[in-house]
């Protein structure tokens, strides 16, 4: 005897399945973050498990990066009167400044099958706890500036992190034929953070202030359903 396998019938029945996602978001800062950064990009990986009742839980890890730092005064104590930093060779240093960070979260949510091709997809809402970290990155091209060596730059990078909450509202599409699967929506993050370096070299002060950091962005992603095989025919011989 033997079985012939087929994928789950997504079109006509509600199914449970793990879903793997890859995402991109463009985010805008709020709260205390708005004074330090402009908008940033966010790329992430997400794992979701959907139940037959259209509840789901998910976990994700996201890498944050941006080009614009609003506070241009942080390195002023290292600059000459013409606004340049001198490197070890007596030349102008090439120091590039950017935003870096990450965000991770775990969410619980529900799928509402409205305006959808099947009962397994539709509008989604999810909430959950998370953790946000961000800092200012300094790239010393050529590594010729001892004032910004690996240890010294910690006094200028404003490494900040803390616990967060997040909410996502959007739409999840699972194709009947498994070809096109995606999600899109708006994500909001609020984190209660603090400078983890403690002492800032530029201000020559300890920084223990409590912060509220926020990010709001449009997030889109592709989904790879990991449907299990099910037997649809049974032979005896």
Concise summary:
This protein is mostly beta strands. The chain has strands spanning 2-7, 17-31, 40-50, 55-66, 95-112, 122-140, 160-174, 181-195, 199-200, 205-206, 210-225, 229-235. The protein has no helices and twelve strands.
Description:
- The protein has strands at 2-7, 17-31, 40-50, 55-66, 95-112, 122-140, 160-174, 181-195, 199-200, 205-206, 210-225, 229-235.
- Strand 9 (199-200) and strand 10 form a beta hairpin.
- It starts with a strand and ends with a strand.
- Mean pLDDT is 92; it is low at 1-5.
- The chain has one domain: Beta Barrel (Porin).
- By secondary structure, the protein is mostly beta strands.
- Strands 2-3-4-5-6-7-8-11 form an eight-stranded antiparallel β-barrel. It has a two-stranded antiparallel ribbon with strand order 1-12.
Low-confidence stretches: 1-5
Category by helix and strand content: mainly beta
CATH topology: Porin
- Count the domains: 1
- Beta-strand proportion: over 45%
Shape, per Cα inertia axes: elongated
The radius of gyration computed from the alpha-carbon positions, rounded to a whole number of angstroms, is 24 Å
* Highest CATH level, the class: Mainly Beta
Distance between the termini: 6 Å
Mean pLDDT: 92
Overall strand count: 12
Helix content: under 10%
The helix count comes to 0
- What is the CATH architecture assignment? Beta Barrel
Written as H for each helix and E for each strand, in order along the chain, the element string is EEEEEEEEEEEE
Secondary structure layout:
Elements: E1 2-7, E2 17-31, E3 40-50, E4 55-66, E5 95-112, E6 122-140, E7 160-174, E8 181-195, E9 199-200, E10 205-206, E11 210-225, E12 229-235
Antiparallel strand pairs: 1-12, 2-3, 2-11, 3-4, 4-5, 5-6, 6-7, 7-8, 8-11, 9-10
